[in-house]
Amino acid sequence: MRKIILILFFAVFALSDELFVPSLGLKYDESKAQLGKRIFFDKRISPNGTVSCESCHNLYWDFSGTVRTKVHENAINPPSIINAAHNYLYTISGNIRSLKDQIQIALLSYKQLGSSEDLIISALNKTSDYRAAFKEIYDDSINTNNIVDVLEHFIKAVYTADSPFDRYLLGNKNALSDEQKEGFEIFNKIGCSACHNGVNLGANLRHQTDFHRHMTSDEGQDIKSELFRVPPLRNIGRTAPYLHDGSIVLLKDVIERVAKIQLARSLSQDELDKLYKFLMSLSGERPRILK
């Protein structure tokens, strides 16, 4: 088994230049995305009418797609929804592989919006604008499937492109500074790219970690001994606090801790600084739908 792991490990580095994909976005329907945006910001779909999806996944005041503080004690640090449509795995445990399923869980989970299908449908049906908008797009009435569908198209529209790293992958070798290029080399050399790869540099696989204990999933199950989803790194410079429990505020601190625990490596100050500068190159432009 150890031999197989080593072979895979070296294969990853042999293919390191092919592990990353520029963020070019996904196809989405503009009308559905705009309608989904309205619902995403609408507090009337929550049980007490005081919170919306945007309350935990902020898209304007700091353009992070998450929040700076935990919503519940011992709860999961809300992940960013920016570029989330590119994820292969969803939720802290990575048990969800469909964006539609993840949206429905987020609407109904007591640790997230905590609403119900009947409440959301009723709230939207009370507004003539919503009734007209859904009628224009769909043949049937406002229902759960259509609500989830428009929210999915909105999330597909919330992606960041044209980051320095994207431009570098597309052939502009001057898009990264010399220190960022060295940081990228370190990122590959010490093994970060074995887990953080693909278009989102993560959210592709699950791993074991000693970072957290006594946490619960979206469904309320104890996940103390479960595998955790590898988090995506796009826009990581904007999405503090870090880790699943939001226990680390500074990006350099989390880089140092992950390297020590996951890679058994103590980083030099030079390595830490260059890795940090490389990760900052993963921040892209504000999505058009939010402008």
TrEMBL record:
Primary subcellular site in the record, as a coarse category: periplasm
Iron-sulfur in keyword set: no
Localization per Swiss-Prot or TrEMBL: Periplasm
Keyword Kinase tagged: no
E.C. number(s) listed in UniProt: 1.11.1.5
Domain Cytochrome c positions: 31-158, 178-283
GO terms assigned for molecular function: cytochrome-c peroxidase activity
Keywords on record: Heme, Iron, Metal-binding, Oxidoreductase, Periplasm, Peroxidase, Signal
Protein name: Cytochrome c551 peroxidase
Annotated organism of origin: Campylobacter suis
Lineage, top ranks: Bacteria, Pseudomonadati, Campylobacterota, Epsilonproteobacteria, Campylobacterales
